[in-house]
């Protein structure tokens, strides 16, 4: 059975947090700064959640307002346009991860499971010239735990020989709920959740 690594994207393969901060500030620039700051804090604490969830959270929890799904999609599309313009710089790739991927993509089965929009994610990976290293690339709006479950079933993955590398609590939760190993990266607070498999 082939050993499989599922990769988160933001903060693990690409250093993008500050630019995604900018994206949220930009699409909500007409709202009170303190409310947007609350969203940024939520965004940073929940890196593995999709922008769709974060946009709804901003309206429904922080502003206490209802938001129509069409408006969520409008904000998400505007956010994506900003990201496509800013995240294709190869200097933002995390070299430690990239070097491991390049050196080992023939030794492992690599997939991406991200909270980023799936269409945008495939576009970025193509522009960054890294898509060839991954069997598949998946993102939101499908929640990450479901993405992981779908991959396990589709490829009949051996859970003992599968791990997810991530930098947020949502990544750990997606791995844990699916019974696979979790490797924390770029976030010391998650080290206690490491279940690093022997093959890694």
UniProtKB/TrEMBL annotation:
Record's catalysed reaction(s): 2-phosphoglycolate + H2O = glycolate + phosphate
Enzyme Commission designation: 3.1.3.18
Stored Gene3D superfamilies: HAD superfamily/HAD-like, Putative phosphatase, domain 2
The species this protein was found in: Maribacter cobaltidurans
Protein family according to the UniProt entry: Belongs to the HAD-like hydrolase superfamily. CbbY/CbbZ/Gph/YieH family.
Matching InterPro entries: HAD-like_hydrolase_sf, HAD-like_sf, HAD_2, HAD_sf, PGP-like_dom2
Pfam family, any one: HAD_2
Pathway(s) where this gene product acts: Organic acid metabolism; glycolate biosynthesis; glycolate from 2-phosphoglycolate: step 1/1
Signal peptide range: none
Domain of life: Bacteria
Protein name: phosphoglycolate phosphatase
